Amino acid sequence: MCHVRMHAFLCRVAYTDDVLILGRGLAGAVLTETLRARGLRVHVFHRTRTGSASVVAAGVVNPVVFRRDVLSWRATELLPIAKAFYTDFGVRNGVEVWHPTELVKLFPSPKEVDQWARAMAAHDTAHFTDRRAQPEVETASVHAPHGHGTVTQAAWLDVPMFLEKQMEALLQHGALTEEQVHAEAIERQADHVRIGAHTARWLVRCEGAFTGAEGLVPVKGEGLTVRISGLRLTRMVHRSVFLLPMPSLGEDVYRVGATFKWDNVWEGPTVQGRAWLLEKIAGITDAPVEVLDHWCGVRPASRDRRPILGRTGACEAVFNGLGSRGVLLAPWCAQHLADHLFAGKALDPEVSHARPALRSNAPDTDRVPE
Ligand SMILES: Cc1cc2nc3c(=O)[nH]c(=O)nc-3n(C[C@H](O)[C@H](O)[C@H](O)COP(=O)(O)OP(=O)(O)OC[C@H]3O[C@@H](n4cnc5c(N)ncnc54)[C@H](O)[C@@H]3O)c2cc1C
Fold this sequence. Notes:
Blueprint: H1 3-14, E1 19-22, H2 26-37, E2 42-45, H3 53-56, E3 60-61, E4 64-65, E5 70-71, H4 75-93, E6 98-106, H5 110-121, E7 129-130, H6 135-139, E8 148-157, H7 159-172, E9 176-177, E10 186-188, E11 193-195, E12 198-200, E13 202-205, E14 216-227, E15 236-239, E16 241-245, E17 253-257, H8 271-284, E18 290-302, E19 308-313, E20 316-320, H9 326-342
Parallel strand pairs: 1-2, 1-13, 2-9, 6-15, 13-20
Antiparallel strand pairs: 3-8, 4-5, 6-8, 7-8, 10-11, 11-12, 14-17, 14-18, 15-16, 16-17, 19-20
């Protein structure tokens, strides 16, 4: 037996688990599934705190950055990986969580029409953008004086369903401890970590915005659940905000979001946030709006808008920085981190937690929402 395999064998015998994971938002849940699929023993410690991003995530997967109509970071590579991951999860758990859909962008001015035309002609975005007719949008009471474009390969992930099913699977295997882990509860040894009765070769911190990792930028987001009677949309629509039909919540019920705010991120839902969202809905339709719910969370973004991954200590690693596109990013990130920790693959410098762009003296983030 070679030295590396012998070491892996001894670890398996010596420790209760292969990996301990802190936090079970999208990052922790997707990583757990990825590692378990590779035959690794995982134990998760999690307590949902107020502000957890995954609890309120709308689940929209949009490969196009609407501000400029360019592809989001590595979308061509990430999208098939995300689709395969969530579809496979659904099949294994007897639920449908990944829903391919069209996303309709309403153009507020002729400038956006030109920008979209350029996207449709550009090599990388042509495949994702189109100006097909949307009779449903055209006949609905929606303001679209300059027309609309369609993102052809968008999707919606049922995040609550995904997280719930993932939790059930963990509980069934006794692989989840539902408690907050404080810093002093983590014992670090030269070749393993311990939390309570659990020991493992690796601890991976998937703590979202609830940590002080270097380069992490917490960004607050608020959203509304509304009823807009008579609107009858079945597709996602975007104009400044997303309007996402939620037929499972009732007829003409939509989730609308979200705001972006970089200060006082933990203050919870605000009157100003609600007013801003209602103003944006008024830009989409004149139909009366009934607010059913107002929610809010804190996105774990990073200074340069890239994920934060990698080994941070002898037995410790980080998986963070999913920002506003966690659904799309998480499966690729989980695979990449698993390859790095367990298959000796080099970490991509663009996502490394040690990259210079995350240091506090690096240029400040571009604080414009994507
Ligand atoms: C309003 C809003 C709308 C969004 N909409 C979308 C969307 O449509 N599409 C999309 O792709 N993304 C969306 N996002 C972004 C997405 O929610 C995030 O990218 C993603 O959820 C981040 O996941 P995470 O696991 O890193 O963090 P979190 O979801 O915050 O999860 C971390 C969890 O770990 C727990 N935890 C932390 N430390 C510990 C500890 N020491 N012990 C135990 N538990 C711990 C926390 O309580 C928390 O529940 C949205 C975000 C917001 C705020």
